Amino acid sequence: MSSVVETRSPSPQMKSVLTPPLTPPPRTATLKEDVPVDLGVPENYVSWTIKNQKPLPPITWSSLYKELNYLSLAILTITPSIAIWGAFHVKMRTETFWWCVVYYFITGLGITAGYHRLWAHRSYNASKPLEYFFAMAGAGAVEGSIRWWSRGHRAHHRYTDTELDPYDANKGFWWSHVGWMLVKPRRKPGVADVSDLSKSEVVRWQHRWYLQLIVTFGFLFPTFVAGIFWGDWWGGFVYAGAARLTFVHHSTFCVNSLAHWIGETPFDDKHTPKDHMLTAFVTNGEGYHNFHHQFPTDYRNAIKWYQYDPTKWFIWTCAKLGLASHLKKFPENEVRKGQLTMQLKRLRETQEGLVFAPDANDLPIVNWETFQKQSTKRPLVVVAGFIHDLSSFIDDHPGGRHLIAKNIGRDATTAFFGGVYDHSNAAHNLLSMMRVGVLAGGMQHGLDDRIVPPSQRLRIARYTELVSSAGSSTAWSDNEGLLG
């Protein structure tokens, strides 16, 4: 559909009858932050950037002092130093201990439920009071502003395990845990759009007052609570402030390191993220990281009710209280496809490590007379149209040697499949490994299910193994036309 724009100014009479246009006219001025930063990114951005943008030279001991990020270094060393000093000089009171635990979860949720699942991944909507709570609690974790944190995390998801990933797990556990913050990055992280966050009044408010907020909620607030309510000013500062902050830091850092280091890959093993219960306990429920990287907009990390994910439970509770809404869940059908893909892949790996019966097409076709002649020299038995050499098994047969001996040179199909004994799957599989030939005309009608050993009835096949050529005669039987 096209439209024609009138270039002349309408007359006063026409103005009174004009209706609003179907599409709003373009704005004369566009704010810089409204334009997605990745709008003009080329399709080969990652490979082009890695090829054409030289990284900074490797860090050496002589150049280390020039490469350090001194602000991050100070935060990540002074805070634990205060906590260690306080452990030797300040007595831990019971009230302060429990306040540390509570405030650890509050500020931790500011990161996991706020920074991560709300703002970085937009996995649900939050009311304004809840957003301000997350903004203050997240500031109390002292890990950067919402905008800065989300920009880095979106780059991590977009460029996982590449050189444009700010905390690339392939560079080692230490780098992804804390090293990337202590030194200047060797390469600028990949472009990631946060223009949506620039429109949020809560994000802008926190960004503007971030320094005051981290001082207030990182140290002053936990200290004042302990001091005012039970008189433990030093304990509040050392334990609820410094020690709690140290634990929150390394808890969050484990999402970048531990969650890419230990565990399983039940949804996809293309990248390093893994699922592990230990990581979940350490990170407030962020440990089911393989699921998260596959389905990042899902408000859950743990999809099973018994898996530890307090962040999910908190968001769900907020939704019940009317503080959150539009909780996103990836379609169950697609989640199960991911699981099935990995299950089939592992079964395929097991399957490829096993030896199966020789292909019928690779076996010689032998007539009845030749079969009987050869049976006088070795114990050959016919079962379901295949000739089997039982030399290695005749003396180990559980039913006794005589049951095999009396069928040498004969067709023992009926005896094998229930006439004497309805043999187990294991017996059928073992027998198939002894095939040495195909009896000419020996494939009786109705034996199709018995020809294939049980271990080969449910094969895991690659898609290339299932595709037949367009003109293949296997598409229909010889006596069938296109209309049946």
Tell me the radius of gyration: 35 Å
The number of distinct β-strands equals: 6
Low-confidence stretches: 1-29, 469-484
Q: Report the sheet with the most strands, covering strand number, pairing sense and barrel closure.
A: 4 strands, mixed
Gross morphology is: elongated
Distance between the termini: 46 Å
Number of domains: 2
Classify the beta-strand content into a percent band: under 5%
In spatial order, strands of the major sheet run 3-6-5-4
Which percent bin holds the helix content?
A: 40-55%
Arithmetic mean pLDDT:
88
Helix count from the secondary structure assignment:
22
Q: How would you classify the helix and strand content by structural class? A: mainly alpha
Order of helices and strands: HHHHHEHHHHHHHHHHEHEHEEHHHEHH
Membrane topology: Multi-pass membrane protein
GO molecular function, one term: stearoyl-CoA 9-desaturase activity
Enzyme class: oxidoreductase
Cofactor: Fe(2+)
Any overview of this molecule?
The protein is mostly helical and 484 residues long. The protein has 2 domains: 57-343, no CATH class; 360-469, Flavocytochrome B2, Chain A, domain 1 (Roll). 48% of the residues lie in helices and 4% in strands. It has 22 helices and 6 strands. The protein has helices spanning 12-15, 45-52, 64-67, 70-89, 94-120, 128-140, 146-158, 173-182, 195-198, 201-208, 210-230, 233-256, 277-282, 289-294, 310-320, 332-352, 368-375, 401-405, 413-416, 425-432, 448-451, 463-466, and strands at residues 125-126, 324-325, 365-366, 380-383, 386-389, 435-439. A hairpin with a 2-residue loop joins strand 4 and strand 5 (386-389). The protein is elongated. The relative contact order is 0.08. The model is unreliable at 1-29 and 469-484 (pLDDT under 50). It catalyses: octadecanoyl-CoA + 2 Fe(II)-[cytochrome b5] + O2 + 2 H(+) = (9Z)-octadecenoyl-CoA + 2 Fe(III)-[cytochrome b5] + 2 H2O. Its main location: membrane. This is Acyl-CoA desaturase.
